[in-house]
Amino acid sequence: MAKTKTKTRIRRTFTSEYKLQAVQLVTEKGYSYAEAARQLGLRDTQIRSWKKQFDAEGAKAFPGQGNRSVIDEELHRLRTENKRLLQERDLLKKAAAFFAREST
Questions:
Q1: Is residue 8 part of a domain?
Q2: What CA–CA distance (Å, rounded) separates 101 from 93?
């Protein structure tokens, strides 16, 4: 059996300014999604997605890294808290099992 090399894809990140400029190519300059995507080296679906997000949220569409929406921030906080509580529960289960064995 031959070993196959697996390629890891590097996830590209884009600034909010870049996304806005890409959307402006379609909205203000009259480019088609395909033309704008070709020019920027993207897929047209990516620009469509950015435009849809911009239409829905306006200037708050691309907050950037670290600037989560209120809902996303709350979700992140709750997931972190849930993870901590599950770890505490598992530790208490192990401690209870340990002391139950010791007392017999």
A1: no
A2: 12
20 assigned to some structural domain: yes
pLDDT, tens digit, for every residue of 57-84? 887 787 766 566 788 889 999 999 999 9
Please state the φ and ψ torsions of residue 103, each to the nearest 5 degrees. -80, -15
Give residue 98's domain range. 68-104
Which residue's structure tokens are 């529960």? 89
Q: Are 26 and 46 in contact (CB under 8 A)?
A: no
pTM of the model: 0.55
Which stretch of DSSP H or E encloses residue 99? helix 70-103
Tens of pLDDT, residue by residue over 18-50, are 999 999 999 999 999 999 999 999 999 999 999
d(CA 74, CA 82): 12
Distance CA 60, CA 38 (A): 26
Contact 22, 36 (CB under 8 A): yes
